Amino acid sequence: MPALGVAQDTGRVVRWLHAEGDAVRQNQPLIEVETDKVTVELEAPADGTLASVTAHAGDDVTVGTVIALILAPGEAPPRAAEPPAGRPAASPVARRMAREGSIDLAALASRLGRPVQADDVRAALEGGAVAAPAPIPHSRAPTVDGAASPVSPAWRTMAERTLASWTTTPHFALQREVPAGRLLSWQERARERTGAHITVTDLLVRAVAHALRAHPALNCSWSEGSLVAHGSIGVGLAVALDDGLVVPVIQDADTLDLRALAARRVDVVTRAREGRLEPSDVQGGTFTLSNLGMYGVDAFTAIINPPQAAILAVGRIADRVLPLGGMAVVQPALTLTLSCDHRAVDGARAGSFLRTLAETLEEPAALVS
Q1: pTM flag (> 0.90)
Q2: Which tens digit of pLDDT belongs to each residue from 334-359?
Q3: Are 89 and 109 in contact (CB under 8 A)?
Q4: What gap in Å lies between CA 16 and CA 70, rounded to an integer?
Q5: Of 26, 10, 33, 28, which Cα lies nearest the Cα of 18?
Q6: For the domain with range 10-71, which CATH number is right: 2.40.50.100, 3.40.50.1000, 3.40.109.10, 3.40.50.720?
Q7: Strand pairing partners for 237?
């Protein structure tokens, strides 16, 4: 089981693309593995015959564990051996909770007969019964008659991270209504000039990157009592899936022209919805954009994506009554809500960033280059 991320302890087998005994070729797709962020299709490392498969669909396996062999022609599989001793399989959150709560993780894993999850440690801390292993569907199933429904690892991770963010990060939010008439006009001009299908989201990403470059104080993280500045700008896009939420990143967003930015956005969002993101696609984010305008939402407040310092929530573009030259005028507008980590950003810096962003959206001529 390969390590697909820095903090990954386990991987879940989604499915084998070949059966035991099949001949496989090097670089041929062999298995799909799911982590808490992405599902990855792994390739065969060599030519040979697939043998000694020990992990099957739905199994959570510790990183580094041998899950199968590829035998050369005429090679016999080795005799079965006892599994090597090592640290018990557990999710990163479960491992941290066990350490902080003085829970014997090895004993808990042995009793469960499967990798330990955060809910298992929580039950042990509360003195309750630890749930028996249950099948976890790929997508989130609705509850029926009040019965609990199992969720995917991605949904569980989303729940744990948003809870941790909301309860440990001092949030504050600023809101501003922005006229969007010129933004829509420039969207059409951008499409004509680039020949690409430029969306409002593309212009928002470009505007956010522009504002972050002008206000590097927002492009930082709070870590162990210190501010960590980020040298590059990676804008994450919150993408809702059936089994959770993923945030693929448009790296170096401030250096991309609109055509390249739109192509990158189409690529990562499409692969996110198809479950084909690579670990590198979700790394390097320094700021997140969450747009619910396509669902008819006027305004909302988003939860910060740690360790980032801020997240921007964007509502739909709709006709509203706004002042213009001392008159009440109906014109298209959208609402921006900026949530910030008060440890990393104060109100003045956040307000200055939001003002620059709003002014850029009101007159976005520079964004079409």
Answers
A1: no
A2: 999 999 999 999 999 999 999 999 99
A3: yes
A4: 14
A5: 28
A6: 2.40.50.100
A7: 289
